[in-house]
Design brief:
This protein has 282 residues and is α/β, with parallel strands linked by helices. It has 3 domains: 109 residues, Tetrapyrrole methylase, N-terminal domain (Cobalt-precorrin-4 Transmethylase, domain 1, 3-Layer(aba) Sandwich), CATH 3.40.1010; 105 residues, Tetrapyrrole methylase, C-terminal domain (Methyltransferase, Cobalt-precorrin-4 Transmethylase, Domain 2); 49 residues. The chain is built from 11 helices and 10 strands. A 5-stranded parallel sheet has the order 3-2-4-1-5, with helices on both faces. A 5-stranded mixed sheet has the order 6-7-10-8-9. Strand 2, helix 2 and strand 3 form a beta-alpha-beta unit. The protein is elongated, with a radius of gyration of 23 Å. The termini are far apart.
Length: 282
């Protein structure tokens, strides 16, 4: 019986692969890849000629049997489209069945967008919750966010570019204007990490249509005794950004209060001390 190797591959930069991963990809008799086109780019770059077979979300059961049949005779490598196989990709089905049938399953560590985004976010990393991709339907996504609203651990989410803005808006409406890091195209040419508030992220990515692959790292819920100061600080930052966009101090205070729930008079007082208009908020 062969061994199923779970090989971590680059999420962008082709140099981000280990020597052990390259050796295993050369030595196995078959590579099962989520996307054979992406796999060929990597394999060609390193002169690896191992045969590949595709295994993706809608693969037929016969394809799974082909992979497991190959394992009966020799070693097989499983790779994701990018990163570690089995993380938010269909490879977990292969892994589960290989374990069930008694094959040896061994990980070959490599890059993971989840961990790369978490460590670069600047948010707490001692304990976190990975939510994968949130539901596509908005109401289902909102329910999912409601369930994690009291969660104090850092939240990590994958999101597609065409759903980024609606996802951020739902986060703002349901979870509040928390600290967030939005990582885009990690390790690639156009890598970007936005750090700030959820409202700030909405404003930042509204400038142009979001492109690339996104990982959102969101601060967990704060204890009740810390929440008021945190919200007030974030609300004031939001109000100042709104003034920078052309709103008056009065308008900015009202809008920021509406989004965050912080008292608008308190916000206006702080803004007025920085050169606001001096008009009372009714």
């Amino acid at each position: 019986m062969g061994t199923l190797y779970l090989v971590g591959t680059p999420i962008g930069n082709l140099e981000d692969i280990t020597l052990r991963a390259l050796r295993v990809l050369k030595e196995v008799t078959l590579i099962a890849a989520e996307d054979t086109r992406r796999a060929r780019i990597l394999l060609k770059h390193y002169g690896i000629n191992t045969p590949t077979i595709s295994y993706f979300e809608h693969s037929k059961p016969e394809r799974l049997e082909q992979i497991l049949s190959a394992l009966e005779r020799a070693d097989v490598a499983l790779i994701s489209e990018a990163g570690m196989p089995g993380i938010s990709d269909p490879g977990y089905e292969v892994i589960q069945e290989a374990i069930r049938r008694g094959f040896c399953v061994t990980p070959i560590p490599g890059p993971s967008a989840l961990l790369e985004a978490l460590v670069v976010s600047g948010l707490p990393t001692d304990s976190f919750v990975f939510l994968g991709f949130l539901p596509r339907r908005r109401r289902d996504r909102q329910r999912a966010l409601e369930r994690v609203k009291p969660e104090r651990r850092t939240l990590v989410v994958y999101e597609a570019p065409h759903r980024l803005m609606s996802c951020l808006q739902d986060m703002l409406n349901i979870l509040g204007d928390r600290q967030i890091a939005v990582a885009r195209e990690l390790t690639k040419v156009h890598e970007e990490v936005f750090r700030g508030s959820v409202a700030g992220a909405l404003a930042h990515f509204a400038v142009s249509a979001p492109r690339g692959e996104f990982v959102l790292v969101l601060h967990g819920a704060l204890p009740e005794e810390d929440r008021a100061d945190y919200n007030a600080s974030q609300a004031l930052d939001l109000a100042r950004r709104l003034m920078g966009e052309g709103l008056s101090a009065r308008e900015a205070a009202i809008e920021a209060a509406h989004r965050t729930g912080v008292d608008r008079r308190r916000l206006y007082s702080q803004l007025h001390g920085r050169g606001g208009e001096g008009q009372p908020i009714e």
